[in-house]
Specification:
This protein is of the alpha+beta class and 393 residues long. The protein is built from twelve helices and eleven strands. A four-stranded mixed beta sheet has the order 1-6-7-8.
Length: 393
């Protein structure tokens, strides 16, 4: 007997991820000049067009220095949309900026240290992987990141035909007795047309063989793959039209990809484009940080944390810890007490503890906000392990 669980990821060239990266790049540009800037930036992309809107409260100096159109073009270029054949490229696309100031009704609550909105946020960690993330989303991210890495090798790439858009999906089989295997892998990757003289079927077979060899085989450990693992590579049979020309994109539409791949709950609030006064982002980071430290400390094999806030109010209105019965030597109630002792859970407290008023967020906007090892991802540190262990009574 076994159970199956599936998670997906998308590449940085996916239309929604283009938008997330632009929104976070705009946020970073403001924070780089004025760390106390308040930003909520949304982006929309379609064939040949980028529309950027939202609210920003900052100094006149920042407003005069931040060129939103230039930032958007830079992101699009870095992703790899530099070819007019894609019908969306950094040089020729139009950029419309309709950002304005934050509502004074919201601002008055934020200025006194309150949360920028109401809502509930979740954090999660488990011992399935070294990064303390669920295995399905961890492997799905590895595939999409690898697609981008191979594409950006350019002339040295074994897959020179790759284009920026792409998706992955991994189904994990959790067997009785604890054995884990990969049941199904789905990869859809945008590509150039078949070379002259080659049939579509032969071209797609080459792409499938290359994906198995250079992508999947490079990032999924052999111990998880079996003779029964099922592969679906470009299952429609062709994926030339992609990016914003194939589908419109919008900030915040990949919130499950951004977090735990559906393995843990999500409060519904997106992250990208939001400064840390927005608890949608900062409290979700804090909840992940605390859950990860609980698991890293050996206090549980799995941990889910929920935090909830009221707009304009600093302290959370509720805190929940749920270890799914895996806690060792401590109750969930006790863990709830402990996390309140080791970290100030007000928006200002979280921001200070995790040092969030820095231009670090564009990196978070592709391949997941959690389970990362880059130094900017302070919420992935396990520096509370000793204090948590010591707090257990």
């Amino acid at each position: 007997m076994y159970k199956l669980f599936t998670s997906e990821s998308v590449t940085e060239g996916h239309p929604d991820k283009i938008c997330d990266q632009i929104s976070d790049a705009v946020l970073d540009a403001h924070l780089a000049i004025e760390p106390n800037s308040r930003v909520a930036c949304e982006t929309y992309v379609t064939t040949g067009l980028v529309v950027i809107g939202g609210e920003v409260t900052t100094t006149e100096e920042v407003k005069s220095k931040v060129d939103v159109a230039d930032i958007a073009r830079g992101v699009i270029s870095r992703i790899g949309y530099n070819d007019i054949r894609y019908k969306f490229d950094a040089e020729s696309c139009g950029v419309i900026n309709v950002m304005h100031s934050q509502s004074m009704d919201i601002s008055r609550g934020v200025e006194r240290g309150g949360a920028g909105d109401q809502g509930m946020m979740f954090g999660y960690a488990c011992d399935q992987t070294e990064e303390l993330m669920p295995l399905p989303i961890a492997l799905a991210h590895r595939i999409t990141r690898r697609l981008a890495e191979v594409r950006k090798m350019k002339e040295k790439s074994p897959m020179k035909y790759l284009r920026p858009d792409g998706k992955s999906q991994v189904t994990i089989a959790y067997h009785e007795g604890g054995r884990i295997s990969v049941d199904t892998v789905v990869v859809s990757t945008q590509h150039d047309p078949e070379p002259k003289g080659m049939s579509e079927s032969k071209w797609q077979k080459k792409i499938a063989d290359d994906v198995k060899k250079h992508i999947i085989g490079n990032v999924i450990p052999e111990k998880y793959l079996t003779k029964n693992t099922d592969y679906h590579i470009n299952p429609t049979g062709r994926f030339e039209i992609g990016g914003p020309h194939g589908d419109t994109g919008l900030t915040g539409r990949k919130i499950i990809v951004d977090t735990y791949g559906g393995y843990a709950p999500h409060g519904g609030g997106a992250f990208s484009g939001k400064d840390p006064s927005k608890v949608d982002r900062s409290a979700a980071y804090a909840a992940r940080y605390l859950a990860k430290n609980i698991v890293a400390a050996g206090l549980a094999k799995e941990c889910m944390i929920q935090l909830a806030y009221a707009i304009g109010v600093a302290e959370p209105v509720s805190v929940l810890v749920d270890t799914k019965g895996t806690a060792e030597g401590v109750s969930d109630t006790e863990l709830g007490r402990i996390i309140g002792e080791v970290m100030d859970l007000t928006p200002l407290g979280i921001t200070k503890h995790l040092d969030l008023r820095r231009p670090i967020f564009e990196k978070t906007a592709a391949y997941g906000h959690f389970g990362r090892s880059e130094k900017e991802f302070t919420w992935e540190k396990i520096d509370l392990v000793d204090s948590m262990r010591a707090a257990v009574k």
